[in-house]
Amino acid sequence: MSFQGEPGAYSHQACRQWAPDHEALPCATFEDTVEACRSGAADLAMLPVENSTYGRVADIHHLLPESGLHIIAETFVRVHISLLGVPGARLEDVTEAMSHTVLLGQCREFLKRHGIRSITGADTAGSAMQVAQAGQPQRAALASPLAGEIYGLDRLADEIEDRQNNTTRFLIMAREADMTRRPNSAGRPDMLTSFVFRVRNIPAALYKAMGGFATNGVNMTKLESYMVDGVFTATQFYADIEGHPDDPAVARALEELRYFTSTLTILGVYPADPLRAEQAAAR
């Protein structure tokens, strides 16, 4: 399974969590991650699409429709952040911490409380690797516990993130689509359908296109727009809905959507992660 980043990245953790029996293949970029799957170097690709704190991952929504791959599953990873130091280092020894700018921003309170200066690194696992190579007790990394395990670093403090519900959603991509109905890991039959579309150039096209989901009682869990080819008048929409295209209500809603769109591409039909039902029940 391909993923973007160095070994120990949160995408690597997602691979281990979702498919512990698969070998994880690190890739330099998201494009490389997709190509590894498309070429057959990897059976699957793990792509992060959104974070509960920072929103959608840049460029992924542009990449999905052009990837030639299909979404077959989703998984959510709880982002636990550890302060990782060289063996023998103590928390009081640390004067600076290195990580990706996003993770540094998630640990401001901890860093301020301990008087630790932040240093921006290329990514989380890469920062852990650099700290291990440097061997300086005053410099630590902010990364996953998995990164500490891989690079032989000590966990000087765990779960130091400011927000305790920080979670990233990942999509699992494959070369072949799987349109079958199948239960999720909790045995629930909940299905999701993801697609992209462009509306026709008529007044209130988006409003009319969305009407079919409302009138047929289909819940849309996500709708996002983004520019196409840098043109302000060309907008593409990404959407997630609950249900399967063979469900009568979903089929009617998609048929109505097609009437008001110039293009409509189904990206995947897959089981909803159990976290969705857990969060709905907790409301």
Automatic annotation (TrEMBL):
Record-marked site positions (Essential for prephenate dehydratase activity): T168
Top-rank taxon, per record: Bacteria
GO MF, one annotated term: prephenate dehydratase activity
CDD domains named in the record: ACT_CM-PDT, PBP2_Ct-PDT_like
ACT domain residues: 194-271
Keyword Amino-acid biosynthesis listed: yes
Annotated catalysed reactions: prephenate + H(+) = 3-phenylpyruvate + CO2 + H2O
GO biological process: L-phenylalanine biosynthetic process
Alphabetical list of NCBIfam families matching this protein: PRK11899.1
Protein name: prephenate dehydratase
Classification lineage: Bacteria, Pseudomonadati, Pseudomonadota, Alphaproteobacteria, Rhodobacterales
